[in-house]
Automatic annotation (TrEMBL):
Lineage per the UniProt record: Bacteria, Pseudomonadati, Pseudomonadota, Gammaproteobacteria, Pseudomonadales
The species this protein was found in: Marinobacter excellens LAMA 842
Domain of life assignment: Bacteria
Region feature (Disordered): 36-62
InterPro entries (alphabetical): RNA_helicase_ATP-dep_HrpB_C
Name the record gives this protein: ATP-dependent helicase HrpB
């Protein structure tokens, strides 16, 4: 199985057949790049333990 990780703009960020290796090696670099480009989206430091969510980060209540 081949997995394609897409950006929020639906552009390809990474393609892998080894998901365990991807989380360990490629994801930290992808995460660093995407945090700057898409700051409203969650980019967890540890995606294996992060809780799934839909949509973007919520703004704090005023």
């Amino acid at each position: 199985m081949v997995i394609h990780l897409l950006s929020p703009a639906q552009r390809p960020l990474a393609v892998t057949a080894d998901l365990a290796s991807f989380w360990q090696n490629a994801y930290p670099e992808v995460c660093k790049d995407m945090r700057g480009r898409y700051p409203k989206h969650p980019w967890p430091d540890d995606p294996l333990t992060a809780q799934a969510q839909q949509g973007t980060k919520k703004r704090p209540a005023r």
